[in-house]
Design goal:
It is a single chain. The chain is of the alpha/beta class. The chain has a single domain (5-416), classed as FAD/NAD(P)-binding domain, CATH 3.50.50. Helix content is 24%, strand content 27%. The protein contains ten helices and 24 strands. Strand 10 and strand 11 form a beta hairpin. Helix 1 (18-29) runs parallel beside helix 5 and helix 1 (18-29) crosses helix 8. The longest helix has 15 residues, at 67-81. It is globular. The termini are far apart. 47% of the residues are buried. Bound molecules: flavin-adenine dinucleotide and 2-acetamido-2-deoxy-beta-D-glucopyranose (3 copies). Flavin-adenine dinucleotide (FAD) binds at residues 14-20, 41-44, 48, 51-53, 58-59, 182-183, 214-218, 234, 236, 275, 347-350, 372, 374, 376-380.
Amino acid sequence: MPSSYDTLSSVLIIGSGAFGLSTAWALCRNPQYKNTSITVVDRNSFPSTDGSSVDSSRIIRPDYAAAPYARLASVAQNRWRTDFAPEHYHETGLCLTACGPEQKYVGDSLANVQNIGTDKIEVLDSAKDIARVCGLERTLDDACGSTGYVNWSSGWADAEGAMVWLRKEVNKFNRVNFVVASVKRLLFDFDSNTVSGATLSDGSELRADLTILAAGAWSASLIDLRGICKSTGQVLCYKPISADEEAALANRPTILNLSNALFMIPPSRGKVKIARHGHGYLNPTTIPHPESQDPNEKITVSLPYTHVTDPNLVIPAEGRRACNDFLASIHPSLAVPSRPFTTTRLCWYTDTRDGDFLITYHPKYKGLFIATGGSGHGFKFLPVIGDSILECVEGRTPEEFKERWRWPEDRVPEEEWAGDGSRGGPVGMVLEEEFRKGEAKL
Ligand SMILES: Cc1cc2nc3c(=O)[nH]c(=O)nc-3n(C[C@H](O)[C@H](O)[C@H](O)COP(=O)(O)OP(=O)(O)OC[C@H]3O[C@@H](n4cnc5c(N)ncnc54)[C@H](O)[C@@H]3O)c2cc1C
Ligand SMILES: *[C@@H]1O[C@H](CO)[C@@H](O)[C@H](O)[C@H]1NC(C)=O
Ligand SMILES: *[C@@H]1O[C@H](CO)[C@@H](O)[C@H](O)[C@H]1NC(C)=O
Ligand SMILES: *[C@@H]1O[C@H](CO)[C@@H](O)[C@H](O)[C@H]1NC(C)=O
């Protein structure tokens, strides 16, 4: 930590997603940084369409098993409800269903709530109840999918709308220099183990006292995160629906099946979206070692592969089939062959071994701070995460996150990671292998 963070003359933030943009906002709002020059660089023009923070919707669901996240999420949710992009937040509820072993989670969660007794919870103990509350066209098999509850206190946000809202807030300060360029490498000085900015792909440099790496799932291309963060690709499928169909579903809860990790957020802007909160695809990629002085030294890490990398990208058939089967099981009329998904997308999680964020100084390089590791649950914190990141920059990491957000002591092989316990669906898929098995046709 620089002893004089309070006199920082310049900060460079790499990445304009939820973590980076909210940090820029926090810097603008804090009088202590009145004289600090702030630069945000992103490889895409804003909003970054293949970034994790830009999409039609994200669940705002503050019920965490870990109390610190539950507390922070509830502060964030109060902001969504009141003064943070409230027009982009919709409190239509979240319906959790399960089948088989995951039913235990549903039961435990419920027991939890019934003890507190403050949430607006509706227990759903038959398939008919689930269908009624979620407005499903089809009543599921009572044998499976008959347990659930809806939490009317949860909601979802239009993620792109909220990011655009936040960018406007930041612009009002007229303080941040936004640069559209790809960072090729951090500016290392290996004699003093210092990072003093970044080199862009055109060879030019952006120099700063403090560099904050918030490049989401791409962070692993700029520092060695093996055994610390891994990027996993998740599937998303969209199709147009009629205004009547949209109106019928718009105020229904999000339905999440904990057994196969598939979920449907209420349709918006004429489209219905199905996605999977799963273990995801790995995309092992061999790149020059980002921290090596030897250009021939290589490492292999999972990195994002998106519609920006490949405009013709269609997701593997396996993922499309899973999304379609889920839709067919709840709204068969939307899943008929004449109404295929018109857009599919891979969105990349930055997973850590246990789902904790990574918000910390780099242990080796002075002047380098890391803010990533969203692990598929970071978006809901958009109203508050920048303030938290700034507290950590100032060496005031909240006590309850000190252990969770720090740079881990050891690098643990990714096959040995416990995970955050919330994922379902297939395990251990490799993107290229799934592509080879057959590409989904749009
Ligand atoms: C499909 C999906 C569903 C999700 N659902 C939820 C949910 O329901 N609820 C929830 O709370 N969270 C959810 N999340 C997680 C949440 O969206 C992420 O944790 C959060 O958006 C991460 O933000 P970020 O700023 O770390 O990454 P990003 O938003 O990806 O930002 C990183 C930015 O860095 C830029 N960048 C990368 N490399 C470079 C480079 N070399 N040079 C310059 N710029 C670079 C990228 O262009 C990008 O804009 C979901 C994520 C995904 C993918
Ligand atoms: C900013 O710069 C002005 C002019 O040099 C100085 O008076 C002021 O104390 C500085 N503010 C902070 C917060 O450092
Ligand atoms: C219900 O939602 C509220 C607010 O979103 C949350 O605080 C609570 O933990 C949730 N409870 C359950 C059991 O889902
Ligand atoms: C949830 O997933 C399980 C396992 O794939 C499946 O058997 C069940 O029918 C699904 N329920 C719903 C609501 O889709």
